[in-house]
Amino acid sequence: MSAQISGQVEAILFDVDDYVEKGEIVVQLNDKHPAAKLKQAQAALKEAEARLNEAEAEHQRVKDVYEKKAVSKKAMDAAEASLKAARAKLDSARAGLEQAQENLEYTRVRAPYSGIMTGRFVEVGETAQPGKKLISGLSLEELRVNVDVPQSMINAVREAATASVEAPDGTIVPVNRKTVFPYAEPASHTFRVRLDFTGDSVKLFPGMFVKAVFEVGSREVLTVPAESIVRRSEITAVYVVTPEGKVSMRAIRKGRNLPEGQTIVLSGLQSGERVALDPVAAGALLKQQNSKQRSN
Fold first, then answer.
1. Alpha-carbon separation of residue 126 from 11, 31, 108, 166, 213 (angstroms)
2. For residues 52 and 90, is the Cβ–Cβ distance under 8 A?
3. In whole angstroms, what separates CA 102 from the centre of its chain?
4. How far apart are CA 96 and CA 99, in angstroms?
5. How far apart are CA 98 and CA 293, in angstroms?
6. Which of 78, 97, 278, 292 fits a disulfide with 41 by CB distance 3.0 to 4.6 angstroms?
């Protein structure tokens, strides 16, 4: 954010790492001169309104007399010209007032969006100049990912129905908008693709590495709820429940996570088998089964 007008910095109301709501004042400049200009503009507007009222009354008086053939056409033309000039003066005064109000508002540097303040480049007492950088910030509500796609895959990515972003923790974030740049980088022969998404529901920050996922086709896969998968030492497994209610632990080879809490199983399970959604309860039941077998 930079200054729109010159002025001395009177206050900096936030510091680095502070969260700022949209519209809050971050930097306050000295407003004595703009405030004085505003009062002048307000006075000029009142004067223009009074002049217009006077011109309208004079125009009406001359018009009434002119209709009775008591004054000349020249006097009528003069009255109409005075009325037009008064209206133009009023329009000019209104524009001056808007400009003065805008200049006064420029002394209050407000946050254009809600976000985190990341830097300050001015101190209280310094003079801000138009275009001079005052503070910087970032918003985590709207994020974007830039990914370079090989030219062999760009047509499939361009036609992909859906796209998503996979966070480092495996969370899948849907993409709001996909933009494919219409040219390849000469050095790498890759195409830049930009993915825009809402970031307020995930812990992602600028500069992080994530995976971009494009749906370029479909195939059937075996999935299980992510909460049913457990880690036992170096083994990834699920608890399988038989139709008779017997529980057994089955090692599986896990694939990638999918939206809505599902995980692909590459091997170790067959379609139609039942898995326990509560691994803790299933593990306790398995211990009871093993104890009964040993006692028998």
1. 10, 14, 15, 45, 48
2. yes
3. 26
4. 5
5. 88
6. 97
- What dihedral angle (degrees, nearest 10) is formed by the CA atoms of 37, 43, 46, 48? -70
Question: What number of CA atoms fall less than 13 Å from residue 174's CA on the CB side?
Answer: 5
Query: What is the pTM for the complete model shown?
Result: 0.55
Nearest to 178 by CA among 138, 218, 146: 146
Q: Domains in the chain, please, with CATH? A: 1-29+110-139 (2.40.50.100), 31-106 (1.10.287), 142-214 (2.40.30.170), 223-295 (2.40.420.20)
Let me know how long the chain is. 296
Q: pLDDT per residue over 196-218, tens digit each?
A: 988 766 678 888 899 999 988 77
Q: What is the pLDDT of residues 234-277, one digit of tens each?
A: 889 999 998 888 889 999 999 988 877 889 999 999 999 999 99
